[in-house]
Specification:
Oligomer: homodimer
Helix content of chain A: 40-55%
Strand content of chain A: 5-15%
Distance between the termini of chain A: 45 Å
Largest interface: A-B, 89 and 89 residues
Largest sheet of chain A: 7 strands, mixed
Order of helices and strands of chain A: HHEHHEHEHEEEHEHEEEHHHEEHEEEH
Number of strands of chain A: 15
Structural class of chain A: alpha/beta
Number of helices of chain A: 13
Chain lengths: 420, 420
């Protein structure tokens, strides 16, 4: 058989590889590459000794369920621990409202499947998280972008866009938001705007999907925990579906995230998960639970804030030194990302080609825009590389910008004699 | 908000809880229940000491990637190890043809999404695996059943059904099969029939989905490894998509399975997996890989065959003793299941009600039939309970049959005076 096209579903036919995951492949094949591409947490911050001790106890064989199939909803003690974390965030969630997911990514996928038919509209910020874009696109959802200000989504654009879509007969199901240290911009939505967005959703009868993986990683030198209060905490109508994860705070390799939703929706997410993977990893769930119970997570958080805040400083100092006048960026107040706008006449794809050749990678802006824009932006993740590699990577990036500018001016001339 | 119906997709609206997973919930809430319901492997057979030692080494922190995000395809050394296992089964599979999945269940879900649009037809045996039924139903696939003989699918019915469907204009995409120790019947498809089914698929231009989780668990007293040769091993046209798993041989809690498919389809499964969970558990994949590399898996297999063969003996002796004349069943030649036909005028749902009250559960037959039949069948999993619990459970089951028969004859009388 030469072609399998006739066997593909419409969804299968249009599936494409994510730009970020493709960068992961580039990275895997290169030795000295500095990666600002995937938003990986720093491995040297993981609580290795605590995890080893917990795993040792769990794998004694005393409790056979540690490696058995488990409930689709999740390991009950972990659900209770998550309810406790939710309470710390100001959100009342009973176990009937919670589902453990195989990473937050599965939560997004379950939402997309349970909520959206092809053609249904989900609104999202311009730019927004590429994993959410992919999950909704795989269902055939129509993603419509809304402008973003430094303090979060632009409410005028949100209202105008919704009104326009409704006039056109669209079924606007939900608004997807990452209010805390957004991926890719690093922006923090103001508390006032959160209130206004919730009021808008109640008025317009639209669900809010609040994706909150970075909430614990605010930078204390400029941001207080109070400023990260989730929209869901003030939701009195069951309007908000909230997602979070242990991937950025404990480790992504466990693949443990969660969804909190009104109980009838949580029940549907559980059914969708049954068909998708039966249950999340049994050992992984128990390690994460024990890390919550034993205070490992609580002890990690201040260390992680200091760690990533320091890397943010190193990154900002490096780009100010090396790329002054060539880029601008909003200062991140938490999370993993510096979102840079190119102030030179070089598009981000061209820059990436030069950067890769010089030993540094990042994600080009277009991956995060549902409206085809983004070629003037790049996302630089400063979370994983150690400080000296951040410095080196930014030096290479500056060299790449210069190389791109040079090739732009010399390319027409070089095309002639250089080949002779 | 009272109702979320208007926010559900068509798929979300029709999603239902699986009968097997529901039994898992019953089980979780009961202390002395004997469970013949979910097909759980026996926890006391897991290689606890080996897993503990492997986890200890992996969690030393020497290799940060042990808890990091990883490639969507899977941990490369694990993919190579799986290619080796496939070669042992007679199947040549390159890493380009393999995708590690979060359990075999995810493989089924990825297949369903990549291959099927609503209304596309997938053929499957009557009865067949409920997890496959659910995965395809969630996409809106039209599942059409084909009769099954003791040596596997009935070829005449397969050909007639396909011809009929084609006349009706249906798009017959694939045939789903579990040739080795089928779930739920325990049947083994004959080698001759495997050859004929493959020839049929090539002739009719239909894909075969070969689901093979039980292959290693043949019972040596009646079955040879040669009799388990996968259909995929003789596939020269790229016609077969093959799924398997470490859940029955190492442990299900790791949630590690795999799909082997022609490279263009494997690439699509990888893209679908990106949106579904980014990657499977990093630690889990490495524990499984090390268990392959260190010979743990190879040492487990003969032990597991003896273990489950012995439990099959205990189960058969118990049902012959306690339920003689009330049920009949094909003798399992491998795997986890006894598939019993009720020879008494009691339907399986009624029997389950009585059984649950008497402290034993199983899965009712209807869950496995896509044509609404199955009320005369029950699936008894003998894999998890220890021998004395199998005996106890079958005694309770016999009591439940008698109670069901009694209530059937006494019910009309009891309805009168008993309430007065």
């Amino acid at each position: 058989m030469r072609s399998y096209d006739k066997f593909l579903s419409r969804a299968g036919d249009v599936m494409r590889e994510s730009a970020i995951r493709r960068m992961g492949t580039v990275l895997a094949g290169a030795d000295d590459m500095v990666s600002f591409a995937p938003g990986y947490p720093a491995e040297d911050t993981f609580a290795w000794a605590a995890f080893a001790e917990i795993a040792r106890e769990l794998l004694s064989g005393a409790d056979g369920k540690v490696l058995q199939y488990g409930p689709t909803r999740g390991h009950r003690p972990l659900l209770d621990a998550i309810a406790g974390l939710m309470a710390d965030r100001g959100i009342h969630a009973t176990p009937e409202q919670l589902v453990v997911t195989t990473g937050s990514q599965q939560g997004l996928d379950l939402l997309a499947r349970v909520l959206c038919d092809p053609g249904d509209v989900v609104l999202m910020e311009l730019p927004s998280y590429v994993g959410a874009i992919t999950a909704f696109r795989n269902i055939g959802t129509s993603l419509v972008g809304v402008r973003q200000d430094p303090d979060g989504i632009n409410l005028d654009d949100l209202m105008e866009t919704t009104a326009r879509l409704r006039r056109e007969g669209a079924n606007v199901k939900a608004l997807y938001l990452v209010p805390n240290f957004q991926n890719p911009t690093g922006l923090l939505m103001s508390l006032e705007k959160r209130r206004l967005v919730l009021a808008w959703a109640n008025r317009e009868d639209v669900l809010i999907i609040e994706d909150d993986p970075y909430r614990d990683l605010f930078f204390p030198d400029c941001t207080s925990e109070a400023e990260t209060r989730p929209i869901s905490a003030d939701d009195t109508e069951g309007r908000v579906i909230y997602l979070s994860s242990f991937s950025k705070t404990l480790a992504p390799g466990f693949r443990i995230g969660w969804v909190s939703a009104p109980a009838p929706l949580a029940a549907k997410f559980e059914m969708a998960k049954q068909a998708e993977d039966l249950c999340s990893g049994a050992l992984d769930q128990r390690v994460v639970y024990e890390a919550c119970k034993r205070g490992v997570l609580a002890r990690q958080l201040p260390l992680l804030r200091a760690h990533y805040q320091h890397k943010r400083d190193v990154m900002i100092q490096a780009v100010e030194r090396e790329l002054h006048g060539m880029m601008r960026w909003p200062a991140p107040r938490g999370g993993f990302f510096l979102w840079a706008h190119l102030d030179v006449p070089v598009d981000s794809e061209t820059l990436l080609t030069h950067a890769q050749a010089l030993g540094v990678i990042f994600v080009t802006g277009a991956a995060f825009f549902v409206d085809g824009r983004g070629s003037e932006h790049i996302r630089l993740s400063f979370s994983a590389p150690p400080p000296e590699r951040i410095d080196l990577g930014v030096k290479r990036l500056a060299a790449a910008v210069n190389a791109a500018l040079d090739s732009r001016t010399t390319a027409p001339a070089a095309a002639g004699p250089a080949r002779s």
